[in-house]
Amino acid sequence: MSRTTRLQDLIRVLRHHQGPIGGPDLAASLGVTLRSLYQDIAVLRVVGVEVINEPGQGYVLPPEVRLPPAALAEPASAEEARAEATLKDPVGLVFYTHPLSRGGIVHWMLEELGASYHMVPMEFGETMKAPDYLAINPLGKVPAIRHGDTVVTEAAAICAYLADAFPEAGLAPPPAARGDYYRWLFLAAGPLESAIALNDLGVQPTPEQQMRLGCGDYWALVDTLAGALAGRRYIAGDTFSAADVYVGSHIGWGMQFGTLPRRPEFEAYWAGLCERPAHQRCQAFVQQALVR
Fold this sequence. Notes:
The protein is α+β, with helices and mostly antiparallel strands. It is built from 13 helices and six strands.
């Protein structure tokens, strides 16, 4: 069953059901899994079809939310037209984030792509732990994206996915030249971030513990990254890539918040990235979010 059909069936059941209906019963009546139901409800909310979840009772579709009957040739209103168009093409790129989170990395990546996307701001706690979002990311964390029927979580994975999904943006090297690209993208996502977190918490692993942790020594990682950036504008070749979005974000944040030292190599590298128009647009969004 296509997602379009599922969304239409979901709305039809809610419209004709008397009162709230619980998630398990609703999923059973539609013949879908509970996880698929939660994802479909999230899709409808993204496009403005607000399915209400009444605590302890279930889901209900407010009477003011209306869609045209299947036999109707033309939608009856602008609201119905938008909903109808969305049901016919529910393949958009949806971005779940919070302005003060690692979602900023993915936001920068999306702006570099130049592709259209729908941003869904989330709140820490209740919103991120709601069943419909947990169906997207069971950890209840951001960022996450939904691209058609594909859901991707974890900022580094999202950056790698988007670079491949939108090759026209040129944010991934050719496959034969991706050695450094993959190396630095995932070194930053794994060993570097782990070492930074441990050091920031004041945890100094012994040499034996460093071997078991896999991230090694914090200062060895700092020296290695600085050496890789010495005299280079980009981390993985001669052109800007998704690896620069991810590595650059960690270096920019690290120097700003004191979790990475202000090495000359880091400062020179970040200076070449932070003025990019896509990054500046993201910074403007964060500033606006902070004053609301």
